Amino acid sequence: MRRRLTFKNVEDWLSVAETRIYNTLYRPELPDCYHSCTELIDDLIEARKALDADRDSKNLVEFRALLDRFILKVRVFGFYFASLDIRQDSRKHGEVWRAILDLWREKYPSFDVRAMEQADEPARIDMLLNATFRLEENDFADPFVKETLRSFRAIESIQQKNGERGCHRYIISNCRNALNVAEVLALAQLTIGDPETAAVNLDIVPLFETIEDLAACGAVMQSLYTQGRYAGHLAGRGNLQYVMLGFSDGTKDGGYLRANWSIYRAKEELTRISRQNGVTIVFFDGRGGPPGRGGGNNASYYASHGREIENKAIQVTIQGQTISSSYGTHASATYNVERLLTAGLENHLFPDHVLEMTAKDRQLMDELADQAYEAYLKLKNHPDFVPYLEKMTPLKWYGDTNIASRPTKRGSDSELRFEDLRAIPFVGAWAQMKQNVPGYYGLGSALPAYKGARKRTIKGLYDRSLFFRTLLENSMQSLSKSNFDLTRYHRKHPRFAAFWKMLYQEYELTERMLKDVSGQKNLLSDNPTSKVSIALREEIVWPLIAIQQYALQKMQEGGCSPEAMELYRKLVLRAMFGIINAARNAA
């Protein structure tokens, strides 16, 4: 840019900016560095003023546009492409605090650790957030405690070098209660907080994942909003509260319909409580590719939110191969970003474009979600549920593909337990089998109970509610990508035959009921583009799954040499890559 904008005074300011950027990157010890991107913007604005003052540049619109574009990029991105989020499980924070309290018991007798351990949650939160002892990693022998404290120091370092926006969110996975949030804020206050005020430039982001936690999240945030220290912290953050809701783990825990409706109701409750307390809530949705992980038609989903759900700002994670398939080219990225932006604007510009749900509609949704949840629990609690995933699907090989971003399961126990399953390989394993259980199971069982007038009520809800219609149409995508013929040989399996039939019966029932409610003769008849797209890609996927199923079957039978087992394992892995990429949202 400096070589192109050689006008009087303009080049001088750009040279200053170039030198200061170089020093910031490579010689930060020098005084002539940038301490924030706003300082760079100030220099660029001076260059812009010099360009406007140059008579010879009046008609050179392209030069102004060049400089304006660069200023805009700095405003948007600062000195980095995107903010870095720190994330840790609430149970890990509990382990860290047990080690801290053990130290304080010996080192600071004035702090009554025993009283805190026996106190109720509000009292424990008060004691934690009012503690003043600085935490130093060298006081602890446990490497994990050291690592956790270093992560807060890293946040401080990133903010010093890149500005606060470079890293300002700490996400608490598996957040269960207000104490989980207070534990993180206390860690921040005692490591990087201002020594005088304990103020920290950090947004604490609870992630509510299970059905139980989604139901309780409103009460959790209410207790935090009214807690003196936390309210003071929020005031320092502009009364802005980020909250994540777990689509993937919610579906794994409660099934498709129960999870999505629980998240919708949680958003309404969190919006109501936040507005009452003068807090602006920002929903940071962890949505994956397939409907079973909150994917599907994202634009319709956000457009369907009523006025009772805050949408001043909505943030969405885009995961897996969905990034390349939806945002991998300029044309597709522009199209999908524009659709999301439009969805966010619709509720403001056209508040009546989607009828708000009535009290009867909500009661009906509650009943449907409860019945779907009951059906899903029967499946989840089936003794063959986890063994089927472990023995008959490619679940165990997800860790070898390096595409799931996290291990196949939490913990290091050799025994696979349902609660330890990670959402990405969990949903992906069902997709690899072309069974897609997380995208529909329980939905079919919930609908047949309604006949006559009640059936007409459901059809009416489908016709007028964009939320309910989007929910069912996203499920149709999961059904359209299912093909039980590819695993039909399981119906004769000595152990899993009954379990496979259970899955197949729910699949058939759900397909039949969705056609009935929607009035469509075939799934996705109202969305021919998606239907054709899926059909084209399924022709690529089916042969790969046939190859994969053959390899899985040979390994299950046993009796192969180690060399043959390794070859079959490679077949499974190579097929997984092709299936995931061709299916676009299979993981």
Short structural description:
The chain is mainly α. The chain has 25 helices and 6 strands.
The backbone outline, from C-alpha atoms, is: globular
Count of β-strands: 6
List unreliable stretches of 5+ residues: none
Instruction: Return the average pLDDT rounded to an integer.
Output: 88
| Widest sheet, order of strands | 1-2-3-4-5-6
Rg, nearest Å: 27 Å
Q: How much strand content do the residues show?
A: 5-15%
CATH class type of the largest domain: Alpha Beta
Helical residues, percent:
55-70%
Number of domains: 3
From the structure above, extract its key features:
single chain, 6-stranded parallel β-sheet, 587 residues, globular
Your description of this structure?
This protein is globular. It has helices at residues 10-26, 37-53, 61-77, 90-107, 113-118, 121-129, 143-162, 178-191, 211-225, 228-236, 247-254, 256-276, 298-303, 322-327, 330-349, 359-380, 385-392, 398-401, 423-432, 443-446, 453-464, 466-480, 497-518, 528-557, 562-583; strands at 85-89, 169-173, 203-208, 240-245, 280-285, 314-316. The chain contains 25 helices and six strands. The chain has 587 residues and is mainly α. 60% of the residues lie in helices and 5% in strands. The model has no long low-confidence stretch (mean pLDDT 88). The chain has a six-stranded parallel beta sheet with strand order 1-2-3-4-5-6. The longest helix has 30 residues, at 528-557. Helix 8 links the parallel strand 2 (169-173) and strand 3. It folds into three domains: 10-77, no CATH class; 85-349, TIM Barrel, CATH 3.20.20; 359-583, no CATH class.
